[in-house]
């Protein structure tokens, strides 16, 4: 069974959607939320890599020109 966002499910049920459609939509939204969380994690790693690269490049240039 997939993860489901209960708030979305409840809102869709109140809006008049059927049981299965509300469940499927809530599960689909939960899937996208998981994808966005993974993208955030990947961006954090990329930020650290870029910062390390910038620091190393600055150190090398400082050593070369001083």
Could you walk me through the main structural features you see in this protein, from its secondary elements to its overall organization?
Helix content is 86%, strand content 0%. The chain has 66 residues and is an all-alpha fold. The protein has one domain. It is rod-shaped.
Q: How is the secondary structure organized here?
A:
Blueprint: H1 6-15, H2 19-65
Helix pairs in contact: 1-2
Descriptors:
66 residues, mainly alpha, 2 helices, rod-shaped
For the termini, the CA-CA separation is 62 Å
Number of helices: 2
What class would the helix/strand composition place it in? mainly alpha
Query: In percent terms, what proportion of residues is strand?
Result: under 5%
Helix share bin = over 70%
Quick rundown:
Helices cover 86% and strands 0% of the residues. The chain has 66 residues and is mainly α.
